[in-house]
Specification:
Layout lengths: L2 H10 L3 H10 L1 H10 L7 H18 L8 H30 L3 H8 L2 H4 L2 H23 L2 H11 L4 H8 L3 H24 L1
Helix pairs in contact: 1-2, 4-5, 8-11, 9-11, 10-11
Length: 194
């Protein structure tokens, strides 16, 4: 029996040191699969925890007689597991989308009566309408220069980049953003006071 076979048997039988050593040999498989798939809620530690679980299960189910190496067997099992997690993640997203209904959609389907049963929802509806109106009025309050820099700023552009695009000084962009903030606060203070 070779040293690798002894290590494999010890890891399969639950010896933690042997498992850790064997897992380290196959960590590049994990890194390669990590580059291939993106799971929103899995950080580095979560990836390794999932991989260790699948590696342990792979050791338990591995049969040399099938003519496949433990590395290939582990890679296949880990990829299948990650794809399964991706499916669950996608299903959760779809479920959230199916369960949510916009306020406008509820009003269209049920009329304004859907809001009458709770005063709080009526207030939310009124605030929603006021915010929509305030946004319309707010955009009318901005100069074309301010509208342009606000659009670039909301797209994630930096002040220096905006200055270059608009062919103006950084101070002019900063002053424009400052004016936008003042106008925004003034306009939305009306809603808050309601």
């Amino acid at each position: 029996m070779t040293e690798e076979d002894r290590l494999f048997l010890a890891a399969k039988n639950g010896e933690s040191e042997a498992f850790r050593n064997l897992y380290q040999q196959y960590q590049p498989v994990v890194f390669k699969i990590q580059q291939k798939f993106f799971l929103k809620d899995l950080d580095q530690d979560d990836w390794h925890q999932e991989a260790r679980i699948i590696f342990f299960l792979s050791l338990q189910r591995f049969d040399k007689a099938r003519g496949i190496t433990i590395g290939s067997f582990f890679r296949i099992n880990l990829e299948r597991h990650i794809v399964s997690l991706l499916r669950k993640q996608g299903a959760a997203k779809r479920q959230g989308t199916l369960m949510s209904t916009s306020l406008e959609q509820r009003i269209i389907e049920s009329g304004e009566d859907c809001l009458n049963h709770e005063g709080e929802q009526r207030n939310l509806f009124i605030q929603y309408i006021m915010i929509r109106e305030a946004l319309k009025e707010f955009s009318d309050l901005l100069s074309s220069f301010e509208s342009g820099i606000l659009e670039l700023y909301l797209k994630g552009r930096g002040i220096t980049e905006i200055a270059e695009i608009k062919c103006c000084s950084i101070n002019k962009v900063k002053n424009g953003l400052s004016r936008i903030r003042v106008k925004f606060k003034k306009e939305f203070r009306k809603i808050k006071d309601y």
